[in-house]
Specification:
Strand content: over 45%
Helix content: under 10%
Order of helices and strands: EEEEEEEEEEEEEEEE
Number of strands: 16
Oligomer: single chain
Distance between the termini: 19 Å
Number of helices: 0
Length: 231
């Protein structure tokens, strides 16, 4: 199931993942009126649905993301460091429930999965801040971009404890909070980032992707599901 409102795809950079686990909770959490919602069940739909634009760092180094068995699968090819993502821009403020997805499978330590939010204070303006949650089988953490400075704490990834990744607004949109959960009820905070004053997250560029840093190791694949954007 998927639908979209305010759809204006835009390019954005992104990132990498491997391991598969059993089914998620029966009910897919969603806000009352998500602006983007994709469970990747429709295998005939575009890879990034009607909401996103496919971005890749190489035309040959990454197995294109594919809708497989009701999930989004990204499998980097051995030989080149590369990544692929689905990205979109939102012309609205970041002030509701946030952005989240379900990480069913992550790659080995030289691979990664990334959820990224780039905020701007004006449409078409310069980047205010880019914040991301990234992880592999080695663990999950929050950082800024492009410096990749860690924000808060990193945690191990376990499919039954940290399968949900979320970034949500706080402090009237002046702060982005990163969290993980096993049941979408109890959340563990990874960290929080205060946006530069006096700007707030008035316009968002959201990307979900996976990739690899290593060129020789088979890092495996990323298996992602239930992507929700409820800004």
């Amino acid at each position: 199931m998927q639908f979209a409102r305010h759809v204006e795809p835009s390019a954005s950079e992104f990132g990498t993942v491997t391991l598969e686990v059993d089914a998620a909770p029966d009910a897919a959490p969603a806000c009352t009126m998500p602006d983007y919602f994709d469970t990747f069940d429709d295998s005939s739909a575009p890879v990034c649905g009607e909401w996103g634009r496919l971005n890749t760092s190489s035309s040959t180094a990454t197995t294109w993301p594919a809708r497989m068995n009701g999930t989004l699968v990204i499998e980097p090819v051995v030989g080149v460091a590369a990544s692929a993502s689905c990205a979109t821009k939102l012309i609205m403020s970041f002030g509701r429930d946030g952005v989240w997805f379900e990480a069913l499978g992550l790659p080995a330590s030289q691979g990664f999965v990334v959820l990224s939010i780039e905020t701007r204070s004006t449409l078409g303006g310069s980047t205010n801040a880019t914040t991301k949650i990234a992880g592999s089988l080695a663990g999950v953490g929050m950082s800024d971009h492009p410096s990749n400075t860690q924000i808060g704490v990193g945690v191990p990834w376990f499919p039954d404890e940290t399968r949900w990744w979320r970034m949500r607004p706080d402090n009237d949109g002046h702060t982005i909070v990163g969290e993980v959960s096993g049941d979408f009820v109890n959340w563990l905070e990874l960290g929080r980032r205060d946006l530069p004053e006096p700007e707030t997250a008035s316009y968002l560029f959201v990307a979900l992707g996976a990739g690899r840093n290593d060129t020789t190791t088979n890092v495996g694949k990323a298996t992602l599901d239930r992507f929700n954007v409820c800004p």
